[in-house]
TrEMBL record:
GST N-terminal domain location: 1-81
GO terms under biological process: glutathione metabolic process; L-phenylalanine catabolic process
UniProt-listed Pfam families: GST_C_2, GST_N_2
GO molecular function: glutathione transferase activity; maleylacetoacetate isomerase activity
EC class (word): isomerase
Organism domain of life: Bacteria
Isomerase keyword on record: yes
Family under the similarity heading: Belongs to the GST superfamily. Zeta family.
Enzyme Commission identifier(s): 5.2.1.2
Ranges for domain GST C-terminal: 86-213
UniProt source species: Aquisalinus luteolus
GO CC annotations on file: cytoplasm
Protein name: Maleylacetoacetate isomerase
Length: 213
C-alpha cells in the first residue's frame, strides 16, 4: 500500500500508527503541505479534497479521510484488532476517537490557522490560545472517559491499543507544538507513555518520517 502523508499532519500520523499496529507493509509518498503540494493536480487526482492523508491500496483504490482509512484497515486486516469485541465497547472507543477527530482536530487544521493569521491578524500567541481553547475541553473529556470506563488499563481502553490511541497520540503531539499544558491530564500522559514504548508508535512518529526537518 501507499500512504500519502505529511510528517507533522495529525491525520497522517494517526493513520501511520494504525498501519504500523496492524503490521501492514506500506510506503510513504510525502506531500509537502507548506509548499502547497496537496493542491497540485497530481495529488488532487488521488484526493479531491486536497487534504492528507490518502491511502492507495494494492489494487489501486484511493481512500481519503483518515477515519475511513483506519476503519478500512480494521476490516482489511482484523488482527491485531484496534476495536474491542462488544458493540457497546466499540462505540465507546469510536466516541473517544470522535472527540478528537470530529470536535478538536478540525479546529487546529493548517487552513484554519492560516485563516486566523491572514484574516484576523493573529500572531503565534493568539494561535496558541486558539489551539488551547479547543484542545482543553477535549482532553478534559477524554481524561474522564479513559478513567471511568470499565476497561481502564494501560491504554485508552484496556491493555492493548485501539483506534482511540491512534487519535489521542497525535493530538497530544499537537498540544506540545502549541504549548498546551498537559499536566492536568495524568491519565492521558500515562497512556502516552505506554504508547511510546511500542515500536509501532515510534515508527509512526513525525520525527521518524522521511520528510521530517
Ligand atoms: N477529516 C480529514 C481531515 C484531513 C486534514 O485536515 N488534513 C490536514 C493535515 S492534518 C491537511 O491536509 N491540511 C491541509 C490544509 O489545511 O491546507 C481526515 O481525517 O483525513
Amino acid at each position: 500500500m501507499k500512504l500519502y502523508s505529511y510528517w507533522r499532519s495529525g491525520t497522517s500520523y494517526r493513520t501511520r500508527i494504525a498501519l504500523e499496529l496492524k503490521g501492514i507493509d506500506y510506503e510513504i509518498e510525502t506531500v509537502d503541505l507548506r509548499e502547497g503540494a496537496h493542491k497540485q493536480p497530481a495529488y488532487l487526482e488521488q484526493n479531491r479534497q486536497g487534504l492528507v492523508p490518502t491511502l492507495v491500496t494494492d489494487e489501486g483504490t484511493s481512500i481519503c479521510q483518515s477515519p475511513a482509512i483506519i476503519e478500512y484497515l480494521e476490516e482489511y486486516k482484523p488482527s491485531p484488532a484496534l476495536l474491542p469485541v462488544l458493540p457497546e465497547d466499540r462505540a465507546t472507543v469510536r466516541a473517544m476517537a470522535a472527540v478528537i477527530g470530529c470536535d478538536t482536530h478540525p479546529l487546529g487544521n493548517l487552513r484554519v490557522l492560516k485563516y486566523l493569521k491572514a484574516e484576523f491578524g493573529q500572531d503565534q500567541a493568539g494561535i496558541n490560545k486558539w489551539a488551547a481553547t479547543w484542545m482543553i475541553p477535549a482532553f478534559e473529556t477524554l481524561e474522564t472517559l479513559v478513567l471511568n470506563n470499565e476497561h481502564e488499563g494501560e491504554f485508552c481502553f484496556g491493555d492493548t491499543p485501539t483506534i482511540a490511541d491512534c487519535y489521542l497520540i497525535p493530538q497530544l503531539y499537537s498540544a506540545d507544538r502549541f504549548e498546551v499544558d498537559l499536566s492536568p491530564y495524568p491519565k492521558l500522559l500515562k497512556v502516552r507513555q505506554a504508547c511510546e514504548e511500542l515500536k509501532a508508535f515510534q515508527r509512526a512518529h513525525p520525527d521518524n518520517q522521511p520528510d521530517a526537518d
